[in-house]
Amino acid sequence: MSDCKHFGMCGGCAYRDIPYEKQLENKESEVKELLKDYIDDDCMWEGILPSPVIEGYRNKMEFSFGDSKKDGPLELGMHRKGSFYDIVTVDECKIVDEDYRTIIKETVAYFRGKETSYYHKKSHQGYLRHLLVRKGKKTGEILVDLVTSSQKPVDTICCEQGLLEDYVNLLVSLKLEGTIVGILNTINDSMSDAIKNERTELLYGRDHFFEELMGLKFRITPFSFFQTNSLSAEVIYSKAREYVNSEKDKREGAEIAGTISSDIEKKESEHFGTVYDLYSGTGTIAQLIAPVAKKVIGVEIIEEAVASAKENAALNGLKNCDFIAGDVLKVLDSIEEKPDYIILDPPRDGVNPKALRKIMDYGVDNILYISCKPGSLARDLQMLNWYYKPVKVCVVDQFPYTKNIETVCLLSKK
User: Fold this and answer.
1) What is residue 271's predicted lDDT score, i.e. its pLDDT?
2) Residue-wise pLDDT tens digits, 203-215
3) What is the pLDDT of residue 2?
4) Distance of alpha carbon 371 from alpha carbon 344, whole angstroms
5) In 3D, which of 359, 326, 339, 254 has the Cα closest to residue 296?
6) Rounded Cα distance, 48 and 31, in Å
7) Of 216, 366, 370, which is closest to residue 288 (Cα–Cα)?
8) Do 382 and 357 meet the contact criterion of CB atoms below 8 Å apart?
């Protein structure tokens, strides 16, 4: 039995009716089976680490507007399981906190009352498309982005300007545990169901919020990548830093200073020359590794994320981080400094095989691979196995009640 009334209808959580301990067993077994051809007795298998929180853990949700049946009332939530069109209003979702649930309930009630149309995927007509909500787990800051088409909501009972003004007034009047620091309206006329930022207008406050991880502060905009479970992200990055540090200790017999601030100040703690952080997002890993490197070069294809990474590095007083916007495959040819260490944190599809070939040709002693899809990691290990072998592997559960899992893998040159 599940404790969530949406389970079975909502396509979000697949494991809601399975005890958490069993979920962890299943996920660890899945990863171990996928990687079995690359793990031998010399590889340290460190098992699975649970998420520090299993309820209300998400710091980002994308909700869709629609209806649950043809010509039914407006809904706001997740796609019905197995359906491309039907939407389930998930106003009691368990993997977000009460602030998200309140914002969903009030938003759908408001636009129902205004008789505002939603965007129909077949006719490409309508106004409301998505609601993006992001919240800092540590800071409590909330960012709300209403995603609409550019079509005027002519069927609503008030003009567009009044519609959005009243919506903003509604949101800022809500009694929430966190604080809404920004409300935006993103225009998206793409025929795809995915959110595409064609233009964003600031309706209230600022266009970003702040989150904190492991003593660092991060400025996050609506579409910049950031791990969606802040507390579990700290587990992943702690493990990643441990793996990086273990190679330093092995070769130097020295320990890295305990805190980030002291690392920055102690130049003698530097070990690695140049570190590549490929698929760097908003530069989280780069900034955590910066204290033990002469220079960190992050590469990320999303320009908005790169801009945030640069601002975050400046915010945290890190002067040895350089971030480049572009495709990893193309950017690698333009970087003059050669790497002494490479960190990979690719999207779900893994690393482009041509880029992976270039990465291996650098011949660094170690590669740290952080994977959000074990199947893609297994595929990439098939190529990496020509020159590298896993020496340490740890599974981290960042998404309780779902099938998704993260893997941290340290590879050593054969």
Assistant:
1) 64
2) 999 999 999 999 9
3) 72
4) 8
5) 339
6) 10
7) 216
8) no
Average pLDDT, the chain: 90
Q: pTM for this structure?
A: 0.89
Q: b vs e for 169-185, b when ≥16 Cβ sit within 10 Å of the residue's Cβ?
A: eebeeeebebebbbbbb
Question: Within 13 Å of residue 134, how many CA atoms lie on the same side as its CB?
Answer: 23
Residue 338 is given by DSSP the state P
Q: Which of 258, 218, 241, 216 is nearest to 293 (CA)?
A: 241
Buried b or exposed e, range 124-152, using 16+ CB within 10 angstroms? eebbbbbbbbbbbbebbbbbbbbbbbeee
182 within 8 A of 206, measured Cβ to Cβ: yes
Q: Which residues are known catalytic residues?
A: 372
Q: What is the pLDDT of residues 124-176, one digit of tens each?
A: 999 999 999 999 999 999 999 999 999 987 656 566 678 999 999 999 999 99
Instruction: Please give the Cα distance from 268 to 35 (Å, whole number).
Output: 37
Q: Phi, psi (5° rounding) for residue 397?
A: -85, 110
The structure tokens 């595929």 sit at 379
Specify the amino acid at residue 159.
Answer: C
The mean pLDDT value for 312-330 works out to: 95
CA torsion sign for 310, 314, 318, 319 is positive
Question: Cα(173)–Cα(399) distance, rounded to whole angstroms?
Answer: 31
Residue 213, H or E segment: strand 209-213
Which H or E element spans position 187?
A: strand 179-187
Region of 118 (left: φ > 0; alpha: ψ -120 to 50; beta: rest) is: beta
- Token pair 């009972």 is at which residue? 157
Identity of the amino acid at 301: I
Reduce the DSSP state of residue 290 to 3 states and report it.
helix
Residues 342-381: b if buried by 16+ CB within 10 A, e if exposed: bbbbbeeebbeeebbeebbeeebebbbbbbbbbebbbbbb
> What is the pairing mode between strands 128-135 and 141-148?
antiparallel
List, in order, residues 6 or more apart from 242 with CB less than 8 Å away. Answer: none
Q: What is the pLDDT of residue 384?
A: 96
Instruction: Give per-residue pLDDT as tens, 71-121.
Output: 789 999 998 887 877 898 989 999 999 999 999 999 999 999 999 999 998
pLDDT for residue 158: 63
